[in-house]
Design goal:
Number of strands: 0
Shape: globular
CATH topology: Growth Hormone, Chain: A
CATH architecture: Up-down Bundle
Helix content: over 70%
CATH class: Mainly Alpha
Number of domains: 1
Number of helices: 20
Radius of gyration: 20 Å
Strand content: under 5%
């Protein structure tokens, strides 16, 4: 027992850094609210217009500007203090979510208004992802990065399970607007916490934005494991956006209900927590191999939505999916943080996000049409099959199977 306790003390030693504790708190509170927002937004749209197509339009309105501005966000995050980039973006997100909630409360909300508001929200979010990826590698030694990433994943997952469970209660009993108000408040608090970080100075190259983008692209394509994973996740995320984020709530609304979808989302978050704890303790020697194996667990939940859409069956599958998601997320962030130069990491991450997210709007917009043509449950079966084939394809590349975890 003493040896096990010693192992946990070593795994948690990274918490001795005040900056790491502040970052984890900021990530927790931001994800807590953000995990409520998608559920609240989807059901708000369904209340206004009982249409899967309308849901896809509003979700795509957020995704499109996020994708379009992602490269700019990467350059900005490599030029300016990354925590301050997140502060400004979070402030904008807080304002937009509060405005959406107010329109819902006053009864003036229309689909086009929610779409415009979410477009602004998505534009701000484009700057968050590349900036967030570069914060922990700048605060600690790279040897501590796997543990720090795992703890960050744990904070995110804990917030997700709490937020998802809370979302089901809020949407079912207090309405969608309340959920969006909570999201706005957490964005504001997250911005405050991020402003408390003290980041090391950034050496500015003085090059133009286009030159910096070219440098980032050169670094991106020089690593086979990076662009292969990104290409695969372009299609995986398209499928997930259509089958889970768009059609999942629609199937739930027609079968096991909105509160049940909150339970399912909470189970997914619980799986993320377990996956994070697993990665803290196991520390796989080949993080990308472990991550892609975890991605296999995405397919069963889509099959479950197709053939057994009940609260507990889908929740059990979602729990397993959460474990797999976290295995990949921590493995990927560890690989990026340890094998990409710090001064280029945000730009490489922006190309990663662009390639991974560019097809999400297509998935969101096409979901309603495909469901109308094939039925929603048939789309889920095709989605599960495609994801399985994509994961198998990535594992054919030695650069993915054998990329090592750095111990120095």
């Amino acid at each position: 027992m003493s040896s096990d306790r010693s192992g946990w003390r070593a795994d948690l030693a990274v918490l001795r850094h005040r900056s790491v504790r502040t970052f984890l708190a900021a990530r927790f509170i931001s994800v807590l609210g953000s995990s409520i927002a998608p559920i609240a937004l989807v059901f708000a749209v369904l209340d206004i217009s009982d249409s899967a197509t309308a849901v896809g339009v509003v979700l795509a309105a957020r995704s499109i500007p996020q994708v379009v501005l992602m490269l700019v966000g990467g350059v900005i995050a490599d030029r300016l203090p990354r925590n301050l980039v997140i502060v400004v973006a979070n402030a904008i997100c807080a304002i937009t979510q509060a405005l959406a909630a107010t329109l819902l409360v006053t009864g003036h909300a229309e689909i086009w208004q929610l779409a415009v508001i979410e477009a602004v929200n998505g534009a701000a979010a484009a700057f968050v992802f590349p900036a967030m990826v570069g914060i922990l590698p700048a605060l600690i030694d790279r040897a501590e990065l796997p543990q720090a990433n795992a703890l960050a994943g744990f904070a995110k997952s804990s917030a997700l399970i709490g937020g998802s469970a809370l979302a089901g209660v809020i949407v079912a009993f207090a309405g969608s607007a309340t959920g969006l108000y909570v999201d706005a408040a957490t964005f504001a608090l997250g911005a405050f916490l991020m402003s408390r970080l003290r980041m090391p100075p950034i050496e500015r190259s003085g090059e133009s934005m286009l030159t910096e983008l070219r440098v980032g692209w050169t670094e991106f394509v020089s690593h086979q494991w990076v662009w292969v994973i990104v290409a695969a996740f372009g299609l995986i995320n398209l499928t997930w956006a259509a089958c889970w984020a768009t059609l999942g709530p629609v199937i739930a609304d027609d079968t096991f209900g909105r509160a049940g979808w909150g339970v399912v989302s909470a189970a997914f978050g619980a799986g993320l927590i377990v996956g994070g704890l697993l990665m803290v303790r196991v520390k796989p020697r080949f993080p990308l191999r472990a991550g892609m194996i975890g991605t296999f667990l995405t397919a069963p939940v889509l099959l479950c939505l197709a053939v057994l859409p009940t609260t507990w069956a889908v929740a059990a599958a979602a729990f397993c999916t959460g474990i797999g998601f976290e295995m990949f997320g921590i493995g990927w962030e560890t690989a990026i943080g340890q094998h990409i130069p710090l001064d280029k990491i945000s730009r490489v991450s922006s190309y990663d996000a662009l390639g991974s997210f560019v097809a999400i709007p297509l998935g969101q917009l096409s979901a309603g049409y495909l469901a109308g043509t094939l039925t929603a449950r048939t789309v889920e079966i095709y989605g599960a099959t495609l994801i399985t084939l994509l994961v198998l394809t990535t594992l054919l590349f030695p650069s993915i199977r054998t990329l090592p975890r750095s111990t120095t």
